[in-house]
Specification:
The protein is α/β, with parallel strands linked by helices. The protein has a domain of 29 residues. It is built from 2 helices and 5 strands. Strands 3-2-1-4-5 form a 5-stranded mixed beta sheet. β2 and β3 form a beta hairpin.
């Protein structure tokens, strides 16, 4: 099933991802290291991504927008 909304918890070394489909059902739960994070998201079809606003989130938001994702930063 396709991920329509993805929530990301950014941390120092490991990032937690939780994706839901159009019907609100969980379709993705994943724990990724920093080096595997961007390559995984580059392969994912464009979707809405929510992540906490922190120092590195602004960089990740710019990169993810280049790949068609809509990124919302949560203060």
């Amino acid at each position: 099933m396709k991920v329509s909304t993805l929530g990301i918890d950014l941390a120092k070394n490991v990032f937690q991802l939780h994706g839901v489909g159009c019907n609100g059902q969980t379709v993705l739960k994943k724990k990724l290291t920093r080096d595997k994070f961007l390559p995984f998201l580059m392969q994912l079809e464009p979707c809405l991504i929510g992540m906490e606003a922190c120092a590195s989130s602004h960089h990740f938001a710019r990169v993810l927008r280049q790949y068609g994702h809509e990124v919302k930063l949560i203060p």
